[in-house]
Structure formats: structure tokens, C-alpha cells
Design brief:
With 319 residues, the protein is mainly α. It is built from ten helices and two strands. It has one domain. Strands 1-2 form a two-stranded parallel sheet. The protein starts with 18 loop residues before the first helix and ends in an 11-residue tail after the last helix.
Length: 319
């Protein structure tokens, strides 16, 4: 599902009614910090490690020299800066929004809108803002791959390639069916128990581009989250000398935190998903099956909501 960071400005409407503001994740003005994140590796890049090997070269975690001679402090700074312009900031905003929700009254009656209009009543401007927002949200994933390419093996280090396309697609589809089904049941249980907000996957206007934008939004979510919180973060934490379970816990808790805007159910469900996805990544070293699964889960959730909302009684809808 969509992570949450700073809400974008709604043009010609109430910012509080903006769907992406309900679950904001795009950080305006992110370019300077992004540049800073890239610059921490300047002068420290060396030969990348291969995808299957240990990413550490030229020293142990205790020696202060890691991949390509990059110091521990620089590598830690790189991680913090990348998360600071992406999912780490999403987590901060999500926690703040959750605290706002629980202090406003029962959360079940409140709405977490995932994809909403950025310019109500102006469809062409709305479309332009939607596409610009999606591009802005996926750039940190490209930055993560770039940083891995400078020291750490690049896209190959996380299995972000088409070498096993058939297997990746098959595993991703199977994962989507299992995780998506369990996730839907978990959301309904959490919502009926009063622990979750009402999640509205789409608040976009009924125009020709609504479904294509929802599909692109689902793909953007999958790329940004799985490349950063699954692939990049687990590889970098391994380079810092973190054990597999410690790194897995950190990655999963981060995933849950930036979904806290949905409520306690959203947090716990995504922690569980992070543990499963993380274990699979640590076993195979490929992010593609989880990226495919995440994209399929969100496509079904977003488009299915548009098709079924108001037509079936068991789907919670805003009141």
C-alpha cells in the first residue's frame, strides 16, 4: 500500500480533501537532500561486490573500512540521507498522522485516502500533478540503485533485473494471491475491531485516466518500497555488519511504520509482510518477485475498490 510523507498542495481545493494528502508520500523540495545523499559517497566508491558475494571488501565491520573503502560513518550517513528523503520521512509523517487520528476520536470512522484528486474539477491539471507526483515518489528508488552501483554491486546486488523473468513473475503472482488474501482478511478484522481507519484506495474523479493512474500508482509503490526498504536497506545493513535477523527486524519495522497512517492493523500487517518478504530476499537475493507481488496486490486493491465500492456490503467505505 501507499506510504505516507508530506502532503502535496491541492490546487483549487481543500488540502484536507486531497487523496494523496490523506496518505501523503511525496516530499516536495527533495532534490537538495537527494543530492546530499549521493554526495556522501564521493571519493569513496570502489569496485562493486557481486550479487551473491559478501558486499564487504578491504576490511571487517570493526575496521571502519567497508565496500570499496567506504567508511562506516559515510555508509551510515548515506542510509540516513536516503531514508530521510523517502520512506524514513514517510514513517515520521505516518506516525504523526496516526497520533492525530487517535486523538481526534474513534479511528474506524476516519478515512485514510490513498489516491485522491490533486486539482478537483480540473482533470487535465489533476492528471499532470498525478504523474509529476508519481515521478517524484519513484526517484529515491533510482537513487538507491545508483548508490548501490557506486559501491555494492548495483541493481544486480538486489536482483533487480530480468534474468529470471518467468520465475520472478510466477513467484510474484503466487505471493500476491497469498499475501493479498490474508491481508484483506486482516484489514477487515482490524477495521471491525476499531483498530484501523477506513482505507479508501481511490478518491480520483471518474475520468478516462483514473484506472491507468491507479495502475501506475501501484507500480510506483512497489518499486519505491521494495527497492529501498527490502533490497537497498538489507544489503547496506549487511555491509555494516548487522546480523540477518537484526536487519530483517529493522526493515520490517520501517515498512510497518510508514503504513501507520492506516491504523494499528496497517502497521502490524505490513510488519508481517516485511518479515516474509525480507526472509525471501535474504534467501534468494532477488527483489523482483516481491516487487511483482506488491504491484499486483496494489493493482487489485486500487482497481477492485473502484469496481466494487458501493456494490458489495463487506468493503468498508467512507461515510
Amino acid at each position: 500500500m501507499r506510504p505516507g510523507t508530506r502532503p502535496p498542495t491541492t490546487v483549487g481545493g481543500d488540502p484536507g480533501a486531497n487523496g494523496r494528502a490523506g496518505l501523503p508520500h511525496r516530499v516536495s523540495g527533495a532534490a537538495p537532500a537527494t543530492t546530499a545523499a549521493a554526495s556522501v559517497t564521493a571519493g569513496g566508491a570502489g569496485e562493486p561486490a557481486n550479487a551473491a558475494g559478501d558486499a564487504r571488501r578491504g576490511g571487517s565491520p570493526d575496521s571502519g573500512e567497508l565496500a570499496g573503502g567506504l567508511g562506516r560513518r559515510r555508509l551510515a550517513a548515506e542510509i540516513w540521507l536516503l531514508l530521510g528523503v523517502s520512506l524514513g520521512m514517510s514513517g515520521l509523517y505516518a506516525v504523526i498522522r496516526y497520533l492525530g487520528a487517535i486523538t481526534a476520536g474513534p479511528v474506524q470512522g476516519q478515512v485514510a485516502q490513498l489516491n485522491g484528486s490533486a486539482a478537483p474539477g480540473r482533470p487535465w491539471l489533476d492528471l499532470a500533478l498525478q504523474l509529476a507526483g508519481l515521478l517524484n515518489a519513484v526517484v529515491p528508488a533510482f537513487l538507491a540503485v545508483h548508490l548501490l552501483g557506486r559501491h555494492g554491486g548495483g541493481a544486480a546486488a538486489i536482483g533487480l533485473d530480468g534474468r529470471q523473468r518467468g520465475r520472478d513473475l510466477a513467484e510474484g503472482a503466487a505471493l500476491a494471491a497469498a499475501v493479498g488474501g490474508v491481508g484483506l482478511i486482516g484489514y477487515l478484522i482490524a477495521w471491525h475491531s476499531g483498530a484501523n481507519l477506513t482505507v479508501s484506495p481511490s478518491g480520483l474523479p471518474d475520468v478516462w485516466w483514473r484506472i491507468p493512474v491507479l495502475v501506475l500508482s501501484a507500480i510506483q509503490n512497489a518499486v519505491t518500497e521494495e527497492v529501498i526498504v527490502l533490497g537497498y536497506l538489507l544489503v547496506r545493513l549487511r555491509e555494516l555488519g548487522w546480523g540477518p535477523w537484526r536487519a530483517l527486524a529493522a526493515s520490517s519495522l520501517l515498512r510497518g511504520t510508514y503504513h501507520f497512517y492506516q491504523g494499528l492493523g496497517g502497521f502490524l500487517g505490513n510488519v508481517a509482510m516485511g518479515l516474509l518478504f525480507g526472509c525471501l530476499f535474504q534467501r534468494r537475493g532477488r527483489v523482483m518477485p516481491m516487487l511483482v507481488a506488491h504491484a499486483l496486490i496494489d493493482i487489485v486493491a486500487f482497481v477492485g475498490y473502484v469496481v466494487l465500492s458501493g456494490k458489495v456490503s463487506w468493503i468498508p467505505t467512507p461515510r
